[in-house]
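Example A, followed by Example B.
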Amino acid sequence: MGAAALEAGRVVGSCYELEETIGKGSTGWVWRARHQVLGHRVAIKFLNDHALSADVRARFLREAKVAAKLSECPHVAAVLDAGVDDAGRPYLVMEHLRGESLDARLARERRLPFDLVVRIVTQLCTALQAAHDVGILHRDVKPGNVFLVGENDVKLLDFGIAKARLDDSFQTIEGTMIGTPNFMSPERLVEGSTIDARADLCAVAVTAYRMATGEMPFGRPALGELVRRIRNAEARAPSSIIPGLPTAFDEWMARGLEKDPNRRFSDARVMAAALTLPATSAPRRRAPPFLVVPAVVIGLGLAIALWAATRSAPAPISAAPVPNASAIASATTAVPVATSALGASAVAPADSHPLPHVPPRPSATIPDKAAQAWKRTDEM
């Protein structure tokens, strides 16, 4: 099938009028079309020539029925219809999305804020968990198959339906590797190995690495060297590339990129939950220098002013001793005198004469003669 075989204005499935090509991949083309009755836009994917055998068509439609079950997941592009056109070409009708691919976003911004990385990975894991729960492996998770709509909401595209004809081992068609090598798990690069959902999770980790650091975990060498690195080399810790990333994210990434599938996250749900710890430990952004410098100057000025105030303040003056409490309680007439003496001594200059000592008045138990003597002494 060539691109010229499909042209604008052609009607597919009795109601979808093709408008223009909006995508092209190794397995087919994607067209934007309009429903002639309802008027809404859809995206239609057609397979390439090598997918036109009867067996491939049957498996394609069977996989399409399974993929339609994922339409209830908000992070999966909905499959609305499927069929075979008059020329015998299988096609899928999907919702038409408005936004941009994650690949396009990264080409423009290189890397994303960590909180956005967490958001995208969490939603991506939700989509994959929904697929894995019904037995579907994506096998080509990468930024090009992650679409961002609205407020950075994820829609996962292309669940490998066109690849349903392939077994799970290392495959080539006319010398071309199926899938995207940079995002493949180590076991996918070993012919005859068993592939399961954990291969998709490794691709999620690679995608997260690319979003957070702006780099690929194993670089972009020639294919042979890339395969060797994926199977044998260890990726650099993300925080060694971007110092602001939390070290807990390094641990999450190391587990996601494990060579042994048994040491990776058990499923997508667990992988997403494990990412909440690195998200909460992400460092806060530093204040800009134009705010930090004035704050330091103001703080230093306040410290100097406080130091100067303490140096110039007069030394504290000690208060005079308080008369015996029991004597004051037993002679209420002496309280004003004692209070007056206390107040005078507290404010007297250092070179003033001390006030005369006022002896305590005897208690009521003193004999009458002694009391009379005390009275005479007091009146002198």
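Example B, a separate protein, is given below in the same form.
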Amino acid sequence: MRTAIVSQEVQTDDLPLPWNTLLTNYLYKDSSQRQALQIYKKEETVILDTEKTEIIKNEKEEIKEQNENNNTHSKHPPRHSELDSESHSKPQPPNKKGVWIGLGVVALLLIGVFIWQGGKDKPNPIPEKVENIQETVKPKIITETVNGISFKMIEVKSGTFQMGSNSGNNYEKPIHSVTVPTFYMGRTEVTHKQYISFLNAQGVDSNGNYQGKKYVDMDAAVCTVGYKNNRFYFKGSKRAETEDTPMINVTWDKAKAYCAWLSQQTGKTYRLPSESEWEYAARGGNRSKGYKYAGSNNIDKVAWYGYEKSGKQTHQVGTKQPNELGLYDMSGNVSEWCEDKWHDSYRGAPTDGSAWLSGSSSRRILRGGCWYSYAENCRSANRGNNSTVSWFINCGFRVVLEH
């Protein structure tokens, strides 16, 4: 049994004619059309009521006239034939059958108009807002554990973006289209805890050397790593107070050495990001909202920056707001090494997401700005560079895992 919900107002003249309501709802699905039809029906009812009133008025006048004639001829009562003729001459009420036929004709005409309009090209309805499917699905996160220390990698789905900027430095030009394949990127920069684990596992000596190469500058005044009982540990400095701060004083080639060790430990391919991968991820990948900085137009929400603002030091990773992908500190905290060689413009740059390794420069790319950078240098589009063998208190890195 169907259950119908009706309003409290019920028009009684519609009750005997359920087909009329059904036909109207079928032919006029749009509420504005049904409203127009109701107005038309009301006007038609007024016309019929007017005609009925006019007929009754005429009938009363004829009866009055007849009574006057009867009074005049009272001495001669009417014969049955006269009464019959008078009764036949009285106006009759409107023919209901004719009214129904008329309504049927109107209904047929309306059906014809409906069919005729259905064949016309109609404007497309205003589309409903449809959310981007990629925005509703959270990026995939995998957790790696190496030497008892866990870290997370976030999937950066493939996509095409406009790399560079016309509002920054000349070396950020020209803006060009780059298509980046899917990859995973570290949710945070590599921390002291992670890098010290690498130093101990690799067999680096107490002076910070391994196979004739320096992996940590133990003699630096701001060195954050100590050595005791044949193991490295985090001793901290005025630039880094906890082991969960990003590793600093690490050169480009030692960041590469860390990636090689991580690959060996996991059986996967870890490496530094290409410059285009880095910028694509900083901008939010295919979830990008076009922010100036990595995750916001308000740099204070997403970055540790400015010598005084940052308290003259790095900060624990992941304490600011992440970007659209869930990546932390892509703006500020420490500048991050990339694989690419330095070029002073994007003319001739790869468009497939790969690192730009051609050219004669011995310097490598740094991105993101750091704890003492001006806000302008923390933009997602900003570029920097440095020597591969230099130790700096602002340089760190994060890793990429090939998909």
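On Example B: The longest strand covers residues 149-156.
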